[in-house]
Amino acid sequence: MANPLDTDAGSELFGNYEAEFKLVQADLNQRLDQISELSGEQRKAAIGRAQHSLDEAKELLDSMRLEKQNLPVNAKANANKRFRNYESDVDGVKRKLDDLSSDRSALFGKRYRDNPTGDDQLEQRQQLLSGTDRLERSSGRLRDSQRVALETEDIGRNTLADLARQRETIQNTRETLLESEGYTDRSNKTLRGMAR
């Protein structure tokens, strides 16, 4: 038998999800109303925000689906009915958002037509060629930058190798100098001994 405290907690949690869902649903409906008045980039951005809200609503529905299992038996029937209505609302919003997303002339503005004329095709082709040309120039600059970076890395590697050789030479010179100093000390001792 379930603990009554658990069912109260389940009811409270389900209620919290439900309240949050209603807020998201109101926000989503407001966003959908605004989309029909927009075009171009603003419309794309608004559709993206609406899609984000729709995803949030779906997540809340999933949470509600899990929590309604913890509801007391007398509250389950009513909660199931409300839940089905929420699912139906979300499906309707998804269909409406899909319709708004597929309206190409509103998304792309006046430049888009389902059956473009010759002038429109020429303009779109020129824009495409211009974009391709800019992309190729950018790619060339990136290749040049990469070549310079590799050359710089090569120079750095050679410089480090030269420095390592110079360090080794200095160490060898120091050792030779210390060794010579030892010979000099011995020679001085020998000379002093001979002088005595």
TrEMBL record:
<feature type="region of interest" description="Disordered">
    <location>
        <begin position="172"/>
        <end position="196"/>
    </location>
</feature>
<keyword id="KW-0653">Protein transport</keyword>
<dbReference type="Pfam" id="PF05008">
    <property type="entry name" value="V-SNARE"/>
</dbReference>
<dbReference type="GO" id="GO:0042147">
    <property type="term" value="P:retrograde transport, endosome to Golgi"/>
</dbReference>
<dbReference type="Pfam" id="PF12352">
    <property type="entry name" value="V-SNARE_C"/>
</dbReference>
<dbReference type="GO" id="GO:0006891">
    <property type="term" value="P:intra-Golgi vesicle-mediated transport"/>
</dbReference>
<dbReference type="InterPro" id="IPR000727">
    <property type="entry name" value="T_SNARE_dom"/>
</dbReference>
<keyword id="KW-0175">Coiled coil</keyword>
<comment type="similarity">
    <text>Belongs to the VTI1 family.</text>
</comment>
<dbReference type="GO" id="GO:0005484">
    <property type="term" value="F:SNAP receptor activity"/>
</dbReference>
<keyword id="KW-0813">Transport</keyword>
<dbReference type="GO" id="GO:0005794">
    <property type="term" value="C:Golgi apparatus"/>
</dbReference>
<dbReference type="GO" id="GO:0000149">
    <property type="term" value="F:SNARE binding"/>
</dbReference>
<dbReference type="GO" id="GO:0005789">
    <property type="term" value="C:endoplasmic reticulum membrane"/>
</dbReference>
<keyword id="KW-1133">Transmembrane helix</keyword>
<dbReference type="InterPro" id="IPR038407">
    <property type="entry name" value="v-SNARE_N_sf"/>
</dbReference>
<dbReference type="GO" id="GO:0006896">
    <property type="term" value="P:Golgi to vacuole transport"/>
</dbReference>
<dbReference type="GO" id="GO:0048280">
    <property type="term" value="P:vesicle fusion with Golgi apparatus"/>
</dbReference>
<dbReference type="GO" id="GO:0006886">
    <property type="term" value="P:intracellular protein transport"/>
</dbReference>
<dbReference type="GO" id="GO:0016236">
    <property type="term" value="P:macroautophagy"/>
</dbReference>
<keyword id="KW-0812">Transmembrane</keyword>
<feature type="domain" description="T-SNARE coiled-coil homology">
    <location>
        <begin position="127"/>
        <end position="194"/>
    </location>
</feature>
<protein>
    <recommendedName>
        <fullName>t-SNARE coiled-coil homology domain-containing protein</fullName>
    </recommendedName>
</protein>
<feature type="coiled-coil region">
    <location>
        <begin position="47"/>
        <end position="103"/>
    </location>
</feature>
<dbReference type="GO" id="GO:0012507">
    <property type="term" value="C:ER to Golgi transport vesicle membrane"/>
</dbReference>
<dbReference type="GO" id="GO:0005829">
    <property type="term" value="C:cytosol"/>
</dbReference>
<keyword id="KW-0472">Membrane</keyword>
<dbReference type="GO" id="GO:0031902">
    <property type="term" value="C:late endosome membrane"/>
</dbReference>
<dbReference type="GO" id="GO:0031201">
    <property type="term" value="C:SNARE complex"/>
</dbReference>
<dbReference type="InterPro" id="IPR010989">
    <property type="entry name" value="SNARE"/>
</dbReference>
<dbReference type="InterPro" id="IPR007705">
    <property type="entry name" value="Vesicle_trsprt_v-SNARE_N"/>
</dbReference>
